[in-house]
Specification:
The chain is an alpha+beta fold. It folds into two domains: 85 residues, no CATH class; 122 residues, OmpA-like domain (60s Ribosomal Protein L30, Chain: A). Helix content is 52%, strand content 16%. It contains seven helices and seven strands; from the N terminus they run αββααββααβαβαβ. Strands 3-4-7-5-6 form a five-stranded mixed sheet. It has a two-stranded antiparallel ribbon with strand order 1-2. Helix 1 runs parallel beside helix 3, helix 2 packs antiparallel against helix 3 and helix 5 packs across helix 6. The longest helix has 37 residues. About 4% of the residues have low confidence.
């Protein structure tokens, strides 16, 4: 069984293909390939566990690997292409784009380019950036979206929480106004509870003042 799963893993990566890491220039298995491979292994394991005898288990394992590979690769490819489009559209905008271990995509929008100090009204020169995000979200409409607002540690906790919620709401409402279905979007204020840098320095506080959009991978495509 172990050898069968390893074979499914290797074969699926080989078929789905490799990509070149844009930062290192090295060849690596694409995220879609890993998604397909993991799906294949999971499918093989489930299939093998449900068979009545050795031959039956093998047949079920192979069938499960094939089905799992298609499903896993589909979601992986869906998120890969979406990530690529976001990177292209947001290049030079100041918005950070990253892929998370769970397959979701994070967009980090620094406070200095999104909102005036202490306010929740979106800066006029940031609308074009949000328009680009909205276009991609509408094209890849099987995802759900979490918009979270974050502050630094300066000021009263209740004010920071309120400001972070208001900013998250502003971004969520704007995306909705551009055609992103509102039921896909959840807006949350995190206040100062999730810093990504040292609040004891000005540079760190500037990094902590941000809005993040997490695009969650769908279960299937």
């Amino acid at each position: 069984m172990r050898s069968m799963m390893m074979t499914a893993l290797a074969a699926t990566i080989a078929v789905t293909g490799c990509t070149t890491n844009p930062y290192t220039g090295q060849s690596q298995a694409s995220k879609a390939a890993w998604g397909a491979a993991i799906g294949a292994v999971s499918g093989a394991a489930i299939g093998a566990a449900t068979g009545d005898n050795k031959k039956d288990r093998r047949e079920r394992a192979l069938r499960g690997a094939a089905i799992g590979g298609v499903v896993g690769g589909g979601v992986g490819a869906y998120m890969d292409v979406q990530e690529k489009k976001l990177r292209e559209k947001l290049q030079g905008s100041g918005v950070g784009v990253s892929k998370n271990a769970d397959g979701s995509i994070s967009l980090v929008m620094p406070g200095n380019i999104t909102f005036p100090t202490g306010k929740s009204d979106i800066r006029g020169d940031f609308f074009d950036t949000l328009n680009s995000v909205a276009l991609v979200l509408k094209e890849y409409n099987k995802t759900t979206i979490t918009v979270s607002g974050h502050t630094d540690s300066v000021g009263k906790d209740d004010l920071n929480m309120r400001l972070s919620q208001d900013r998250a709401n502003s971004v969520a409402q704007y995306l909705s106004s551009q055609g992103v279905v509102s039921s896909r979007i959840n807006a949350v204020g995190m206040g100062k509870s999730q810093p990504i840098a040292d609040n004891n320095t000005e540079n760190g506080r500037a990094q902590n003042r941000r809005v993040e959009i997490v695009i969650n991978a769908p279960e299937s495509v």
